[in-house]
């Protein structure tokens, strides 16, 4: 039995780029079950190898499989060193762009969370918006700001939505007048990655990122791709989305076109919409050009338009208003954007980048408030320009970024009344430096400093110019191959603006312009510490990850909407301190084709004014979210997600009950076709089930000022088709 000779092969498996050992990589004989996994030193011994030519395979998650044929017995007695290359898909997933260093998530001192595979699943659940996708991470809440128009903002670690900065491909285009519509107007079909930085990130991108930032990265023209996405729901949603990508020589092109319609939907038959009537489209073409190996150019544009109308179902159906049926909330918006970026490699270690974007956002809102027909109308045009010059210098142990930026924001109100005009604008000049330093194999440091000078004015007054100095520090200690520790902190600021979620229910009526001469910017301090443990239990079929983070945020003299005693409202600095603190616990367990994720967040959020502490409204102290996923590549994808929120303090002083929502999505791939069915909130948790008096509230007896703390639409299912051409 020569073929069963007892040959043995010792191997060392490493990362081809970094020469770091790969723990849990596999080595096995092709066509057999004879295999082993590498130990903490990247070594393994494969035994019972027959004589003659034997094909061996070496593999690791996120790396290309390496095959080789060896003849046994071997003359060499030393261990065989096998270098595995990261797969292109893995490289696309782990490189982080929000920190500007383009490092892998495992090597960044700044704690950054990344979503990649979850994007397709979220697109099946909500193909017209990213609201569901954003909430896949713990400590993040999409808060609905209007019960009828369904406006929403992103809250991080208990802070209001105005403290979250939303980026797309590193361009801060959103916010301001469009703040409560952003997550409702971005379809996810062309996204390839979502990055989260929790805690102050103002040093990286300037004012506005007090609570953190979300960076949405879109697909680039790396390959030819055509996607068609059709969706229908039983509550009246219809979607048609298409994405195309082409690469022709030095040129590349992508385009996303989407169209969404939604019939008005009244889940509880109380006469008010729980989902408004919606009509919107998006069109986002992009051109990529690489004239040589050292130069890259990118030009993108975007056009979107949306109409939404919520309120009394009879009025939406064009029936005449009456004493009992009078309320509606109508919103119309259009967005036009253009982006330009050029990268030039000066030498093998130095790159110069110039970025520019310009956007115009037009919005009109009209609320019919009472049976007398009184209208609250507000509208205008906001323009934003962003310009940045960035020099990046890298070596084997460091990355240095130096940048200069100029931003300008301007709002011009569309006048409907004789009330004082609320036109406002601001200009920011900033310079920043950020360095990432690999001290040794166990320690990485990141230090940054930004200085911004901001001038702002309204029709009421202007400031004298404010200067902000924003240091930032992060450290990563790799205590063990399975255990790492991150520590970080920084400062931030936010310039006062009329556009806050507190003003939305009023449709900005009776809200005075910002008094920039007497209202100071909000300034913040934040810190977090994070522990990460990762192990595969010595088996290629297992992977366990545990993250534990503690956070603290403080905002001095936060700006609050304050009545002035004469029927008008002002945004003014409070003398108190707004603070949020708590911790996040995340656990992810992968076994075979199953992945289970669960995350718990404890949040303590309050406004302190002397000896008086006021709890912030609509912040659940306890939150649990997670999902269980089964994936059989190119065949099945079945996911079950769930979320628990504890009682929340309401503006009325009452507390909401705790709620638990859950849903299931099933996807079946057959060649180039993917069929999906999503049952969302199948336990039919609805806010109106807990309200004895209905969803309408004071002062107008409408849903206008209703706190939204639970789903309004209840159970719904949608199904559709994705086609890869």
In short:
The chain has 725 residues and is mostly beta strands. Helices cover 4% and strands 56% of the residues. β25 (424-438) and β26 (443-458) form a beta hairpin.
Cα radius of gyration in angstroms: 27 Å
Helical percentage? under 10%
Outline, from the CA principal axes?
Answer: globular
Ranges where pLDDT stays below 50 over 5 or more residues in a row are 89-93
Secondary structure tally: strands: 40
Number of domains as seen in the coordinates: 2
CATH topology of the largest domain: Maltoporin, Chain A
Q: Strands, helices and their partners?
A:
Layout: E1 7-15, E2 26-29, E3 35-37, E4 43-49, E5 52-59, E6 66-72, E7 80-84, H1 88-94, E8 95-96, E9 103-104, E10 112-115, H2 118-125, H3 131-134, E11 140-144, E12 152-156, E13 164-168, H4 182-185, E14 191-198, H5 202-205, E15 212-218, E16 225-233, E17 237-248, E18 251-262, E19 277-292, E20 295-311, H6 313-316, E21 328-347, E22 350-368, E23 375-394, E24 398-413, E25 424-438, E26 443-458, E27 466-480, E28 483-494, E29 522-535, E30 542-556, E31 559-563, E32 569-573, E33 577-591, E34 594-609, E35 612-615, E36 622-632, E37 636-645, E38 659-670, E39 673-680, E40 716-724
Parallel strand pairs: 1-7, 13-15
Antiparallel strand pairs: 1-4, 2-3, 2-5, 5-6, 8-9, 10-14, 11-12, 14-15, 16-17, 16-40, 17-18, 18-19, 19-20, 20-21, 21-22, 22-23, 23-24, 24-25, 25-26, 26-27, 27-28, 28-29, 29-30, 30-33, 31-32, 33-34, 34-35, 34-36, 36-37, 37-38, 38-39, 39-40
